[in-house]
Amino acid sequence: MITAGGKLVRKIVVILSVLFFILLVACNDENSVPEENTSDDVEQENKDSEEDTKNEEDEDEKDLDEEVPESEENSEVVEPKYKIDENASVVPVEDGVNENVVLLTIDDAPDKYSLEMAKKLKELEAGAIFFVNGHFIDTEEEQETLKQIHEMGFVIGNHTYNHPLLSDLEGKDDQQREEIVGLNNVIEEIIGERPAFFRAPNGVNTDYSRQLALEEEMVLMNWTYGYDYFKPYMDAEKLTTAMVTGEGPEVDVPYSLLKPGANLLMHDREWTNDALEEIVTGLREQGYEIVDPHLIQTISEKESVE
Ligand SMILES: [Zn+2]
Fold first, then answer.
1. Ligand 1 centre and the CA of 201: distance in Å?
2. How much distance in Å is there from the Cα of 235 to the middle of ligand 1?
3. How far is it, in rounded angstroms, from Cα 58 to Cα 48?
4. I need a labelling partner for 251 at 20 to 30 A (CA). Which of 25, 131, 192, 243 fits?
């Protein structure tokens, strides 16, 4: 038999639990708003859970988290929706995913313009991968720049330490290892994670660099088109036209390379920085979505699926 007093106590307990739950949900909502920050949130959460000692409050929080609807839980884990195919194109991994996407990549970062480019892209809500060279992150100030770009939600890729032509290092395994694995160590120290994508200088890999990339769980990534490193296109207006149409008639590309999944190569250069906003809006006007690189399958994600 339950007494009136017992009922009241149970009522209070229920009300308090509901209030606590609402508070938790509200806090979670605040953390999960900007899409681009999702991975940062996950990272932050991972850090938090590593650092936290397992006290009772944490246990309570976990119990309550389990009652949160599935969709909200999943918003913290980014499910891969695309992969890089053998032509460096971005292709959906499942039906129902928009295939009309292009990927923006910025190589030789973070030199003079990367931070400004990152700010512009952030403003435009356009994701990108910044492929980084070690010699651009060897001062404290440069390391701070890299950290900032990463914290803005951009993906950081490996572009070797000194930007050598890897074919020149054929047979010099130690040097290739230093260029690739050494850079990952430096990047991890600065941003707290190892790159999941590798782009060789000039797109030239060796058998050993391919092996190292795999060992480091990095997806090899060349590109499908880019014009900012050809003399005729070292000009913001001409570059914009070339990037938005996919055509570079002055370097013998009189047909369009813009197609679903195009992987666009750009660099940390003045004219590219000047053209960036119009390139993004121009591509969107053609019906292309700028893909969020966090949605591209990495090797560790691939392994966990298979
Ligand atoms: Zn480069």
1. 5
2. 19
3. 11
4. 131
